[in-house]
Amino acid sequence: MLKRNHPLVEALVASLESEARHQRQYIALVQQEKEAVVKFRTDDVKKLSKKREDLTQKILSSQRERIEIVKKILKEEKLNLNSVKITKLADTVMGGKDRERVKKAAAILKELISISKNKTKELEGIVGFSMKLVSGSLSAIVSATYDLNTMYMPNGRVKRHQVPVARSARHIARTA
User: Fold this and answer.
1) pLDDT tens across 78-90, in order?
2) Tens of pLDDT along 23-68?
């Protein structure tokens, strides 16, 4: 059992709180990026996407730090566990107030991660819809400006090529 206010417990709580702070920032960035996509502000989307990518690296760094702290706690307590949940670790090796602090910080982080995942899925859905909308619009524009001519070659092959609609219309007008 770790003694009260053990430096590893303090480091674990600080790591959990740091990651929670990063998750809150990430959720705010996802919301801003979602609004920028809906309003077709491409410059803002690029900037926010870059910020979100940088913040993801900070989150990964916090997670690695937390894993190292948990490994140190396991080593100090001479526990040999391949995978461990922080709440179960707190129940096993921490007492009273330390246990409650760690469990509270872990619960907050878990909730923020869940919200973050949901917001990211929403953003991905909106971006996917926008991409399909743009792709469909481009396809409609191209099909309205180009005509597909089919020619049958003497050797039996079919040759297709696109010609601008205006040139195709002039050719039809000349032959008529």
Assistant:
1) 877 666 888 888 8
2) 999 999 999 999 998 888 889 989 999 999 999 999 999 999 999 9
Residue range 160-176, pLDDT digits in tens: 877 776 655 555 555 55
Classify 118 in phi/psi space as left (phi over 0), alpha (psi -120 to 50) or beta.
Answer: alpha
- Which residues are within 8 A (CB) of 43 and not within 5 positions of it... i.e. 6 or more apart? none
The structural architecture, per CATH, of the domain 7-135 is Up-down Bundle (1.20)
Number of residues assigned to the chain: 176
Query: Hey, what are 43's tokens?
Result: 């410059």
Distance CA 30, CA 14 (A): 24
Sequence-separated (6 or more) residues with CB below 8 Å from residue 22: 55, 58, 59, 62
Largest CA distance in the chain: 97
Q: Where do the structural domains in the chain lie, given as residue ranges?
A: 7-135
3-state class of 105 per DSSP? helix
